[in-house]
## 1
Amino acid sequence: MEQSYSDKAYRWNRENYSSKRRFVDIWSFVLTFMFKVWRYNKSWSYPGGVTEAKQAARRKAQAIWVRNTLLDLGPTFIKVGQLFSTRADIFPSEYVEELSKLQDKVPAFSYEQVETIIEQELGKKIPELFQSFEPIPLAAASLGQVHKAVLHSGEAVVVKVQRPGLKKLFEIDLQILKGIARYFQNHPKWGKGRDWMGIYEECCRILWEEIDYLGEGRNADTFRRNFRGYDWVKVPRVYWRYASPRVLTLEYLPGIKISQYEALEAAGLDRKLIARQGAQAYLHQLLNNGFFHADPHPGNIAVGADGGLIFYDFGMMGRIKSNVREGLMETLFGIAQKDGDRVVESLVNLGAIAPVDDMGPVRRSVQYMLDNFMDKPFETQSVAAISDDLYEIAYNQPFRFPATFTFVMRAFSTLEGVGKGLDPEFNFMEVAQPYAMQLMTNMNGADSNSFLNELSRQAVQVSTTAFGLPRRLEDTLEKLERGDMRVRVRSIESERLLRRQGSIQLGISYALIISGFTLSATILLVNHYVWLAVVAGLIAAAVSVILIRLLLRLDRYERMY
């Protein structure tokens, strides 16, 4: 259920913050969330018994609660939630879906505060800088708000002004988050196989980059240069004389939001062409430049009167290093050959999978996906379906999709959804195929034979493995002699007996508790302590119900075997 908020609903919507109050608010959320996760796995917490449908409904409700609570906690947590929406290896799909909806539409701050910040940052009052300045903002977000203005030279601009006290709030919140990350890192269950401190450092880096408006201005300039040969893409020009770390002045480029399909139709624009151009613009960013818009939601893309695309908001950008393309190429060859081992090895080298002692389950998951989802023609594949399959495999596995990878997948899914809204017959993969073929051609060389290249590469790999085999055997024997190698044998029968023994011991404990409370109730009743006797009796009855359910489950388990 969605919430509506007033200014008073946000305790963080002020310039001065209490670090103690923030500590209580943040840790209250964390502890409540941990309780909800603990309760989720308890069958007694589901009226009428646990079912898969009830668990799915509870996950959905918890995800909505998390999204609304992060909005209550303010800018830091709105942005952290948006970043966590890329971590499908940590959260179930319901959480990823809800967090990706997290939009920071919050109350605006006052015009008096805007005047103060602009004067502090640019050294002059608003009338000296602008011919006119609209006091009511065009839009307000958690990090700042945007006002329309006109320069003395007559050029229409928009002025982004950062929310007052934001840096102080970030410092307080990130210090508390560091303690939370450290707690989870040391947690016996949730810390295992997770790099919580690494996630915390990544969040810090992205958050500090996003509130540096000078950095955003440089990103906008780079983005515009990358599209200088495309007359159907427009990027607002930065007015550097009116820019600072907390104030950014940009060219005013109005347009129709790309998701307002009826308005585009009414303006006489070609919706099919817009859908294709949106996909082509993103593929150009990703494959040709390696510098891409990491948050291309419909609010950040508009369509001009001439049908050209207009991009806004360059605070969150992604970069793809040149060496990553070679790793992606290796992954593509593995997928083409349906070679699960090769795909896993390439993903480990890319950093998308954290190597663990037993990689068997991961290889089986990848091989299952290759065998079951890669038989369809490339053009008929859906980005959203592929990303859902990847996220399903990644959850609770040693997959560690880097932020760049998940930003790309989320952007692809968003653009595919917008494209289908513009044109029901639109297929993102069909538009992407020529770019993918071009990438493969470039990686192998225009005049080279890719098959021969691959054959020679495999021959070199085989010879390298053969030469290294004696040394690997020697290392294995040394580990056996030193006792460094552990051999793990799994016996299903032994595990069954141990589980049965554990259940019996638990049943004996329940029986002793029932006996103790029954005896206590009897003694209290004889001594005319009726209410205390009733309480003891109720406790004994409740434990009896748990004992009966345990015995029934034990009996059912025995029949299965």
## 2
Amino acid sequence: MSATVTQQYPRIGIRPTIDGRRRGVRESLEEQTMGMARRTAAFLQEHLRYPDGSPVQCVIADTTIGGVAEASAAASKFKRENVGVSITVTPCWCYGSETMDMDASIPHAVWGFNGTERPGAVYLAAVLSAYAQKGIPAFGIYGEDVQESGSEEIPADVQTKLLRFARSALAAALIRGKAYLSMGSVSMGIAGSIIDENLFQHYLGMRNEYVDMSEFVRRVEENIYDPDEYAKALSWTRANCKLGANNNPEHLVIGEEEQNRQWEFVVKMTLIARDLMVGNPRLAELGFEEEAGGHYAIAGGFQGQRHWTDHFPNADFMETILNSSFDWNGRRAPYIVATENDSLNGVVMLFNHLLTGTAQIFADVRTFWSPAAVERVTGHRLEGAAQGGLLHLINSGSAALDGTGEQEIDGKPAIKPFWDVTDEEAAKCLDKTLFRPASQEYFRGGGFSTDYLTRGGMPVTMVRLNLVKGLGPVLQLAEGYTVDLPEDVHRTLDERTDPTWPTTWFAPKLTGKGSFSNVYDVMNNWGANHGAISYGHIGADLITLASILRIPVSMHNVDEQDVFRPRAWSLFGTENPEAADYAACRNFGPLY
């Protein structure tokens, strides 16, 4: 993520609260309480990173907080220090409504130490009650096992909750105040490309920016891009991006001269889209001061079909490169760009990226292949993770290059944060990818579609945000695994659709209940034609983030013991957590 977009990253504020009674009580707790705050800050700074790979920064209140004056002093410091997440820690009883953080616009958590000497659990319950009563949902963190009063350990279950809350709360804070850039308008009637400003403003705290696709033509024709970087990018593309077989009928095959012209054009498109999103100081040096500023966009989308692609080369190369974690300048954070301007898929791509630091696969949720259908067509019987059937995830060729799975963790295929990707792994991703001349019947203006096959065996999570009139945004997710098929089986199935596009074979984890009774039900209950696929089983983090933003979750296959929401959610019922989630989100309303 460009520094022109991030400016100063939000920090985590640590609030050590204490029993305010002097003449012995408070004095005996000062060192223990402040030590708890310092250990929490050190733990989070060690385990969490910002999108540029730098360690997360924590700010600790100048003093322990025993009353409202010290709470107000901490709040003033937090505003100066750009704190976007608040964590209160205490080993003892404190005065709840006097010591609590009253900023309703940021996420809150409270860790009450589980010890017998002082009633930290009593304060935790009291202050969470105050948060609920005042309409500021807060997360409660309470270790399962009693600790000795002098213990400096952060128990494993507390670590998990601290990280889950902090990671999700930081994602919400990083999004706030940024923009979604709509490059073009509605694509082929896809509802997700109908920009809903209420979602972005009130649920995400973002603004919406818009440019017509004609801006790309203007910048190409008027040379509003860095010519030196363009030369570098074109040279890198010719050296590293392999041209694949042309799948078009003979009368639609273009000549070498036209093909070279299209390569030049799509490389310029890539530079221009990035500059539109985050700006480029080099443009000011070239006399384009206005264009140098960009649109402060943390995510964006390109309409493409059909008004663009009926005449100009498609955006598949542009979207693939921007969404990847490397390009001609080396490794860098992905720029989140949604195909067909599907802003709802762009939002969850952004969620996934901020939670993991990884590049995302944008895909159509194209086809459910039952075991019987696969065996009928190919003679192959599905086994292992795929024994219940597969979802064919494939779109028009714009998934991140990282989606090949050619990066590795402990010898297994993976998608890693850009700061962990090696040059060799980036080269492998490119080597396993073909850029094939676009299907002219779909894309009359030509271009190049990204074609690769995702390696099997990766834990992944498929996510989608849907909008429902009268209800608002609803999140759904499915954890599962990518799957390897025998080469001939993959080819037989893949060639029934467009073989120039990237394929990911996905097997969701089944629970035997609801939407996850079988793979068909996962497909049948998916809310739209697109999904964002992230490396890792990150469903629990997504559920926590959704609750922070007051977005209910309609389907998931995360173990209930891993679901972490504000404590007030349990006050809406414990027998049916999904119904309680809907009720709580409706009651508290959008965060902003």
## 3
Amino acid sequence: MSTPSTPTPIDDDPLGRERAHLSSSRAALRAMREDVESLDISDVTANWVNAQILGRQIEDRIRALADLSDAPLFFGRLDYLHAPGAERAEGAEGERPRPEAADQKLYIGRRHVHDEDGDPMVIDWRAPVSQPFYRASKKDPMDVGLRRRFGYTGGDLTAYEDEHLSDPEEGARTSRLLQQEIERPRVGPMRDIVATIQPEQDEIVRSGLGGTVCVQGGPGTGKTAVGLHRVAYLLYAHRERLARTGTLVIGPNRSFLHYIEQVLPALGELSVRQATVDDLVAHVEVRGADDADAAVVKGDARMAEVVRRAVYAHVTLPTEPVVVVRGSRRWRVPAYELEEMVRELLDRDIRYGAAREALPQRIAHAVLVQMERSGEAPDDRVQDAVARNSAVKAAVKAVWPPVDPAKLVLRLLTDTEFLAEHAAGILTEEEQKTIRWAKPVRSVKSARWSAADAVLIDEATDVVERTPSLGHVVLDEAQDLSPMQYRAVGRRCTTGSATVLGDLAQGTTPWATRGWAEALGHLGKPDAVIEELTAGFRVPTDVITYASRLLPHIAPGLTPVASVRENPGFFELRPVSDPAEVVAACEELLRHEGSTGLIAADTRIPVLAEALAAAGIPALSPGEETTHDTRLTLVPASLAKGLEYDYVVLDDPRAIVTAEPDERTGLRRLYVTLTRAVSGLTVTHTSPLPDQLGV
């Protein structure tokens, strides 16, 4: 950390000046909020509907302008050598460059703040002029003379650190404030990383809306934060478009979503919806579960063709004409002409429901042609009336009947002959047997649907009626999705783009992604750009080095994460004989500042919960927010993914491995749990450690 050692008369109290600017900026933000709160819309809306809409927009704006007392309003300053955007090239006729304003100071923060004259006091981190704060270097200073980083304690500005990027005599060095911010204790939900975004992360964050980006990142590389900040950036750069089309963040479970839910609101973005894949496909109540073999087959992309065949099998070619009676006239559309209409709609490969809606209009049009030939002059109202004629409706129902997606999937799973007919040449007889329900089910409501069944129903629903597309979707922990789940997500961004985040080494489902190119094909985004983050900012060096021993066994060829942390962290292997010794390890780590997680195989959770209670140590569940008095979270291994704690006690690695259906999945689960610590890890074990750890 550097503060000027020799004060000058011009700048004798730089820290005081920066604190004064912070105080003025907070006052300006309050004034901006008060201006919005004082708006009177009683005379500017035409009706109560408009008034309600405008009122909600004002409420959102007020919330977006909230000043978070424990979050810095700005975290950096750029002193440009020239006014940003100033013309420095010679003109066409060789005239001299325009004069430029020197020493342009811009404060970089979470949101834009301006004074009463409209002049900026804080520049939004997403603005183009803020980009050099993240990307400027000694090799490419980007016209920045000085980059200043600020250190905070709570919301109070307490330190600063300068880099003179355009000074050839000052060497490049690691920022201590940056390291301190990265290593700051984790208490409460996930926070934003706007003060610590690295150049390689910034490139992904600021990539355009038009393309899909897939980020492969090992533990602690910041891929989740990058995905969330990319949403915030896209909302800044394309606000009107995304306001119309919508944005969505998809996480693996509710605990994870609760953990990340405050990141975007802290950046002033309140309109982004969050959901799990199960939320997206909640057409039926999920009350059952598949074994691994059935789930793998149901999640296979081949099931999409089985479902499509089953839907369109309801279409039958007409054998009888349609006779429409209007007044004293009878109009006859022959069967061969009806067959041509049906075949044409099938050849167009449009949604089943859209084709069904189009067919009566086609029949009505054929009737109108006959009317015109007979000398009548029918209009659109006549065509609509013919399309609603009982004879036409009866013909359409016979040829192209309605399909209920849930009933269709239920029949596939319970009717042996129906499944065999539509899975012929796609699924083997053994695979068909694997997914068939053993017992008959009377109705959709009484069925014990599994999560994979709900995805099949979503697929059938989309075959019948197109799923609306959003403008942008962020898919986190994507490596655990099945091909059919990828298709379900892809349907939500067919005309939009996506940010796909994951780590192949952390795939812990039997159907886990084998490679990103294949996964992106299922998503419907085969042309997506694949980026890899390998610099680790969260996991300490000693911890990630130990966990990386598993990589050759779980993801051969994947680049190990290289920790950039100066602090190697705390790491210990500790043999124990009973749960009380595991609790003792937790007590030791709780003496440190920050959060502690006790992670164990799911079957071990009740025993450890009892031991903690006996010791008088309160424990939270994953997703619950830590407090000053309660800083220990008891985490089942199955829910650890995506979470992080300052210190972790990992109980019995072998039990975590053997709890999974196969060794590779178990070792991947272990890799996940080994990499949740930010500052220190204690591994307790009663049984021998897995051989793959090389111990």
## 4
Amino acid sequence: MTTPAVKTPAAASPAARGAAATADYLDQRTSIGTAVKGLARKIFPDHWSFLLGEIALYSFIVILISGVFLTMFFVPSMAETTYDGPWAALNGVHMSEAFSSTLRLSFEIRGGLLMRQVHHWAALLFMASIVTHMMRVFFTGAFRKPRELNWLIGFTIMILGLLAGLTGYSLPDDVLSGNGMRITDGVVRAIPVIGSYLSYFIFGGEFPGTELIPRLFTLHVLLIPALILGLIGAHLILVFLQKHTQYPGAGRTDKNVVGYPLFPIYVAKAGGFFFIVFGVIALMAATMTINPVWNYGPFDPAIVSAGAQPDWYMLFLEGSLRLMPGWEVVLGSFTLPLNVLIPAVVIPGVLFTSLALYPFIEAVVTGDRREHHVLNRPRNVPFRTATGVSILTAFVILILAGSNDLIATHFGLSINNITWVFRAAFFLAPAASFWVTKRICLGLQRKDRELVLHGHETGRIVRFANGEYIEVHRPLDDYERWLRVNYESTAPHEIEPAHDSRGVRRKGYRLDALRQRASRVFFEDRVEPVTPAQLEAAHSHGEHDALEGPDAGQTPALESTVAGGGRRLTEPEDHTTTDARKP
């Protein structure tokens, strides 16, 4: 009896054997294989909006790569020199070594201008993606427990990004960046008591001093990138340690994650997406000029150009300064320049502080201490959505005000009239946008309720034998119904009376009353999700009109949200009386 031949696997190549031996060597000494195995099996949900954070990460990588190239040729010195190079318009002009090396990078170093523009466009995209990513987190409630710390980390990265931009576009030492630093000096000097000392410390003497560029260079290439890198690492670690948030849908709860494993799905996606982001930035840099410093010339404190604006993410501060009237308060021998303090310190401080603390404010108002891993639909949290839109509206108004001179020249308008319009809009537009957004959210909730109760209109009319005409409605499937009813409608906080049964004033009543008033502001206007009983009555064709809401007798306005009226016919479907919030 012969034994059948057994095929042996082909011998591995030397490279494969070397990689396997290296991996085995590291695993035996670090146990890295267990960590890699767990990381590769990590499940992540799939949604396009999660790419916003990845765009920020990849843009920062492009910033680091291009920044290393620029650092090799840039000279961070304010020592004076005379330019003699290919840009003939500036030949023989006295300028700093910083500006001269910037011109050399732009015209004499092969690929230098491309890398300058790659660096600048990547910085703009980095800030844009961070702001958009934070908007997504805010409007969907992804900042709720246990992610409050990650919200603060992201907020700090955004602030550091602003500082990185401020220190970065000031390095060429041209007229535009010099005007920006002159404004910065004015803001610092406006700080009571310590302002002049801070200015002297920052500039190494009277503005502009001789130490500014080297100090900005150290901050821009060393300190701020190191802090951002550390915070990005902490942010990613927390994302891996905590469950990833996911959008509401059938089968998605706070106890699971529905998605795909990191390896190989998201590894392949992330790698490809990085090159897409890099390619888009390179295409922008190759085709769209940005910050042509050779047109501005070297910085001269006596020159102030019209139509000069900083990058978009700092334009709100410029607009705030332009809108403020020239108010000053003289106290003895001290002058408080309110025309600088209020727009440059108070307004940004209020906007940023409210944004940073909002997760904690909402947690206190709701009293919710549970973990949340399923995101909110913005329409189901009207107050938060309206608050976010009002903050964005104020931000946009300030950005437009920062370009009031360009608006005036391009459209032939009076700059004074434009300024007054923006002053009024800064106070009125956020309030109006808050009210409109809140009403839109409540309207969308009522539309969802109507769809759950009666289904989609089909446009098909049926006539009965008695001559009555009925429109046929198509019921929602289980998945769509789940999406539209599976949310919590938080009611205003109820508190105990101020005095107990013995007439003694209850301890902590004032704090409870304050929290109750705040909860009414947040949640008094709301639409309750459809209950199983209401859904069953709606499918009985009109009988639900007599059905009372869950809070009948307490909130009469709620009964008006129970959709009804008229007789409707639905397409045949096996309706059950089970919980409508389960798929």
